[in-house]
Amino acid sequence: MTWRKLSETQGKVVKIITNSIRKERLSHAYLFDGPKGTGKREVALQLAKTFFCEKKDQFEPCEVCSDCKRIASGNHPDVHIIQPDGQTIKIEQIRQLKKEFSYRGMESVRKFYIIEDAEKMTTSAANGLLKFLEEPDGQSIAVLTTVEVHRILRTILSRTQIISFVPLTPLQLMENLEKDGIPKPISKLLGQLTNDLDEAYQLYHDDWIAQARGIVIQLGEEVCTRPHQVMLTLQESWLPHFKEKNQLNMGLDILLLWYRDVLRTLLATDDQLIFVDQIDKLERHALKSSQRKVSQHMADILEAKRRLNANVNPQLLMEQLMLRLQEG
Ligand SMILES: [Zn+2]
Predict the structure, then answer these.
(1) Ligand 1 centroid, distance to 66 Cα (angstroms)
(2) CA of residue 148 to ligand 1 center, whole Å
(3) Which of 41-45, 221-225, 265-269 has the highest mean pLDDT?
(4) Residue pLDDT, tens place only, 106-124
(5) pTM value?
(6) How far apart are CA 308 and CA 244, in angstroms?
(7) Is the CATH code 1.20.272 the one for domain 171-326?
């Protein structure tokens, strides 16, 4: 890993840190805040390598010395990573860390520790850590990471330099999901619906998103070619699948993406399609429609989303939407 590579996704974060390295003004405690999957751990480990490596080229660690190698393989004696033990990070874990620190000079006088999911520290663990952060000796660096910065004690916030990681772009999220073997049509859709990798995996779980997508495709097709079936599909597939309000909201988002793809097909900008494997159906839909009609239908779906937020009965709302979508 290199800082250059990390800057492709977290340019601002890398700039702040590498500037501090250049000026030899690294903070003794950082708090990395940002959604899961944004590279907080990678950046922390890269910082650890830079901190220990004696052969760095400017600020890029060499990756071949024993410090770099041991950090990469997770067994550097002066780099500690604390993760939640079950639901919480407990005071015992912080005590253990302090003990490690008291064996100064295992390898050098420097120490580096990472506390992941720091919002999960119990109050006593957080207070224990606080003493630690209050007595920096200039030879150690702490990196706390969190997805919920509002749950971190104010006293800890005030003693750390907070660095915010930006959410992944749809493309970055999609690439992450594809790397994990999630098929392209699904990962493309997930990239549009969320920028949180965790949420993406939850939606993928149990095939929920694949089924949701199938229902939207079916309904989109029926609206323009077999309108007599629409209400049946609504009753038998749509309403049972999109039970909760937030699920229905997402169903409407997917339907909106379908219509946007129809519009892109009409405009011949189909290199940006989300439903990449449904070109035949999109073209059939486009043939029966027009730019004006599709734009109207997208507005209808947005209106349905607004009414959903105003707590209109979901069944009524969907039935009315289906009637509108069938109108020329
Ligand atoms: Zn090195």
Answers:
(1) 7
(2) 33
(3) 41-45
(4) 556 788 999 999 999 999 9
(5) 0.71
(6) 11
(7) yes
